[in-house]
Write a sequence for this structure.
């Protein structure tokens, strides 16, 4: 998985900071998560091919998470896109986009499919042979979901030396990769683990923004490899965080700790603070593996 | 008048080019004309005070002319704006903005007034003691207006030496500036032009984008001081201009020439061309006073 942060600052776009948007690349599938104003320019700056984005996930309908969507949808048309585009987001998102297309006498050359969300329980919203995506119900001022991206466990890897030693024909390779033992012509049974290596471990990534401190998400993100959790404020603004249903860096770290996460990425920073390093320092008092998102930064895991 | 170009390129926002938006400063009143995606960042980059913008004019509902509006309206709230904001634009613009505010459970702290336009004739949309704004009906793929900004002729300027020589009391100064003659106590009548200087000549500015070549606008912009006219294409793409209801640089220059404009500013360039100087070269074959808009550039007139 490769995560590219296009924007990770709260509230309004500014000269050097962008509102929320990120691209998750799982085995060459690109998932766009949130789409604040200016996302299409950030995609260009980060040299991400527009044509590879087929699925867009919108957490909630606050402007800093979706005002760039209609522009991106329109630009896809100008770029002569023909591939279907799927948008997953809160109920209402279809009306917003369709109204603007209609009033501008525009249309899309490609199939535009909306998957509107309104469940308060976690649900599977996307699945193919490599990836599963579930919602993570969050608690914010409007209906909000985080998203859990789970890579599926791949096939076992063929041990080529071993299968050649046993003179096994190549037509059996797929069965072996699927985990089956093999009976040789002389009757010997060769156990699968003598013919294969373990598959590359499947990774998972959870995007949780925006939300107040909310332990209800813990069962969904238990043992997560990488957790992106919003930290709009520092603990010094704890009351403001509670009032606006946002989290502090310490609270994000507490969620990471309690979820037994391997790594925590902080983001959705208020621009009131002098340095984002302050968020890391605060979170590290609770949880050691803290990374800081920043616009244009990539993480591989 | 001071015109600041925030963006003047056609179609999508790109890394180094912005869609249409400009700020016209007339005697310290700021008028925002069009509001493509990223306009609020361009306002910051050009150090234009958000709080001074009270009137926004939207030419038409194509994304590159208004997708930045909802973000700006929201940011005004975050900046604790309290002053009324007036938005002038095609019918439908209110529904677009209100729907997004409603679905994001947001509101504005300030009075938000929509002046929806649907007339096919030129009409006065704004007037105060200093400025008059009229629509310029344009011909494009959707309902579109340009805007004519007319500075009103100011008061005559007091000739302080003259009024002191005649020992005229200061309570008469305003009457004199209004153009009246004065009768002295000894009965002599002093004609106004001996007591005043001519006022600063009133200027006018016309914004015409997007439009196909359209002589119907000529009576409205006759003798205009400064005409901003779109030139999406060069004459080599004349057919594409006709098809998409845009203009070429030569056509923009022809309108400027026939309107007896003093200056022409070109903009709304397609990014397909190597250099925007090509637009100037082509326009200058028809009309001599050609200026090129560019993002971040200002013009004083």
């Amino acid at each position: 998985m490769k995560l590219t942060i296009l924007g990770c600052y709260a509230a309004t776009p500014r000269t050097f900071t962008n509102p929320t948007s990120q691209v998750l690349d799982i085995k060459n599938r690109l998932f766009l998560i949130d789409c604040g104003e200016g996302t299409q320019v950030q995609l260009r700056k980060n040299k991400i091919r527009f044509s590879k984005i087929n699925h867009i996930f919108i957490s909630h309908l606050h402007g800093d998470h979706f005002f760039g969507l209609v522009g991106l949808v329109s630009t896809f048309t100008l770029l002569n896109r023909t591939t279907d585009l799927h948008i997953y987001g809160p109920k209402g998102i279809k009306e917003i986009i369709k109204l603007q297309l209609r009033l501008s006498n525009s249309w899309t050359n490609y199939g535009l499919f909306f998957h509107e969300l309104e469940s308060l329980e976690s649900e599977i919203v996307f699945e193919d042979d490599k990836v599963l995506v579930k919602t993570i119900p969050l608690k914010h001022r409007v209906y909000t979901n985080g998203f859990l991206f789970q890579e599926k466990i791949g096939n076992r890897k063929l041990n080529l030396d071993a299968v050649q030693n046993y003179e096994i024909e190549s037509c059996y390779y797929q069965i072996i990769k699927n985990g089956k033992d093999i009976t040789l012509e002389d009757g010997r049974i060769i156990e699968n683990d003598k013919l294969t290596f373990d598959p590359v471990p499947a990774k998972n990534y959870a995007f949780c923004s925006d939300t107040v401190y909310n332990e209800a998400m813990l069962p969904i993100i238990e043992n997560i490899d990488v957790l992106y959790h919003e930290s709009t404020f520092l603990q010094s603004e704890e009351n403001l965080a509670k009032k606006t249903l946002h989290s502090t860096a310490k609270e994000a770290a507490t969620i990471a700790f309690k979820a037994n996460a391997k790594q925590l990425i902080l983001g959705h920073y208020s621009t009131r603070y002098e340095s984002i390093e302050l968020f890391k320092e605060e979170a590290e008092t609770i949880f050691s593996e803290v990374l800081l998102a920043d616009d244009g930064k990539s993480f591989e895991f």
User: Anything to note?
Assistant: The mean pLDDT of chain A is 96.
